[in-house]
Amino acid sequence: MSIGEVFLATYGRAHELAWRAPGRANLIGEHTDHSGGLALPFALPWGVTVAAARNAVGTVRLRSLQRDVPTGPRTLRADDQGSGWERYVTGVFWALRAAGHEVGGADLLIDGDVPAGAGLGSSAALEVAVACALNELYGLGLADRDLVEVARAAENEVAGVPCGMLDQAASTLCREGHALFLDCASGGGRNVPLRPSDHGLTLLIIDTGVRRELSDGRYARRRAECEDAARLLGVESLREVEDLAGSLATLNATLAARVRHVVTENHRVEAAVGLLRAGAVADLGALLNATHLSLRDQFEVSCPELDAAVEAAVRGGARGARMLGGGFGGSALALVPDDRVATVRQAVGAAFDERGWGTPRFLPAVPSAGARKVD
User: Fold this and answer.
1) Which of 348, 42, 339 is closest to 199 using CA atoms?
2) Catalytic one of 33, 111, 167, 207
3) Which of 90-94, 173-177, 218-222 has the lowest mean pLDDT?
4) Catalytic site includes residue 146
5) Tens digits of per-residue pLDDT, 176-211?
6) C-alpha distances in Å from residue 18, one per residue of 163, 214, 269
7) Is the pTM of this model over 0.90?
8) Structural domains of the chain sorted by starting position, each given as residue range(s) with its CATH number in brackets
9) How many other C-beta atoms are found inside a 10 Å radius of the C-beta of residue 154?
């Protein structure tokens, strides 16, 4: 059955519209967005679709077609934020109303194919799809950048994840065949061509199968450490740090490590943009490797499975690899020559098998389009 047919069977009437928003992978620029930094994400071919219709009773009725979610529709009052995944949906209603927009009730049917908890932006895809649907349903006339802020506010204030804007911006603003050069201080972004297949390369996502929730507190601690460091250094955000060596000398070891990662990662983003513009895509590998080491050793957000995936991928012939997303589990990204993809998959699979871990999943990532209306 199509999502429209399921909507009709669930709510007894047709949906008015449907929007689809993609997940994302971040080529480089990890854990910089919450410090006003730079990032270079691209949209993925997998996403979340939301079919929607207004209702006259002022409630939020929602049903997800995901296998791990109860099958029946849930009805939430206007002041009920729900629990778990529901908060990413109700958070969008809250954020729109908090910004002064008149949004009534709605019936929503949600489906998607972004692996949840894999570090691929599934929550942002859900938020953006809901925000786009409500924007059209209620004729709010919000621009794309406004929708990014609505989706981020939903995740920050209701879902309880103190993320920056990276995931929501990528899901909304990316173009097919491009990465988004994102300035998280200004909110501005420019799309830069990213077509690895033109260079005989594949961007290969390695899903370790290790699931984590960014709302469990560890992500928040990293952001708080960055904010503490900025306050001690007398700057608004770590983006403003210019004298890295001098700044590090004034901080304790933990905060110095966090600052070192953020500042050097911003430099790596700028270097990556330069390589893309020069057509030197294969040379991105060294930057990916450096980012992983920094996330592992300075920001301390990796885990054994991610480290093993990265090391095995490089050993198998990848030009470079790194962990993706907030960390503590999820996925890695490898830049692999097309003729080495099978070897890399075999090497990573063998590394996991030797350690008694589950079989990783491999997903070729093609830079795709941002949020769009669907039939």
Assistant:
1) 339
2) 167
3) 218-222
4) no
5) 999 999 999 999 999 999 999 999 999 999 999 998
6) 26, 28, 34
7) yes
8) 3-191 (3.30.230.10), 194-365 (3.30.70.890)
9) 30
